[in-house]
Request: fold
Amino acid sequence: MFGDSSVYSRKATLSLKISEFEVPPMQDLLIIGRKAPIGPEAVRRMAEALSPEQFTLLKIDHPKIEAVLLRNSILQMMDEKLLMKIILEESERMISESMVLRSELKIALSVQREVDLL
Amino acid sequence: MNISEIMNPTIYSISSDKSVSHAAKLMSEYQMDSLVVIDHGEVVGLVTSRDVLTAHPNRIVADAMCNEVHYLLADQNIWEAHHYFLNENARLAIILEDQQVSGMITKEIVDMQIAQYKDPLSGLYRAPYIQFIGESYLQKKIPFHLLFIDLNNFGRINKQYGHPFGDDVIRTYSAVLSSVAEDQGGHLCRYAGDEFVLISTAPDALVEQYIELISRPTDVLDITVSAAVGHVNGYSEPDFFSHSWRELIAQASLASSAIKAQRMESSFS
Reply:
């Protein structure tokens, strides 16, 4: 039998995980699927708001991929067509129409020169 | 009838940064299947119910809209709007008056108005349509052939076989004329009872061939039908463009009557 002395309580536990927000959050490039929840124009506006004049949006004709957002500095280092060819070749195997992929892209230059000794 | 008389003076709009799901909500609220996308007072696109259905609801309107916007002028008439929608495969146009946006119009509204100018029996347009085509050609100084086609002895067909059969003849004959008119890119209408008017810009030889074909007795629904064709040739007629539409149609119909009278005479002699 339940008497007046029974105690009822409701408690909540709060948990916080704090880490640094990376600006911009999209690293070097974003690959946007044709039916992704965020479209190219929204991505462009977001990039422009977070990192003005640092990203370029390239719309492409591809069955699954609608556009690629690229960091301008990468485009200055490599030919756009060659870069896009590599990005598409590698990403089209794993992307679906509804996905947005983000990627880190680093270019490392390796040089070896042979010179005549005096 | 001008577009300004049937357009919707209210612009149902949305800004490009709103979500597709918000656009769908507005469309349902306004009972519209398109919204004009306006950013900072400038028209930037159009979002339709089809766009809303195919795009992810989380996307912004800018990523779902069509950037191609169609414009019509408030003083253009409904035939011009009808032709524009057909040629451009558009469904909605913004209406401009004195270079200012004054409203919008959908293809459905124009089609509903145009349907009133269709003859229910033959499915062809009625006289105001051909008048619009003729007058606009005259205004633009485009020469054309004007053919006034009058069925011979149609009154006799009605008396001999009854009016329902006469209606069947009109329907079948209209379909024949319509297919020939389409072949040469002409404009055809049922002008009155058993009279049809055709405007064609086809070469003379082809038009002559067409007249020969129509004038020749043809079997329609087990009876033989022929027509008297009055022809005004805008390519050879002197001062063609100095005539009004009314004068040209009178000239063509009189030419048709003269051919009929000539045939009657020769059948009695």
Remarks:
- The helical segments of chain A are 40-50, 72-77, 80-91.
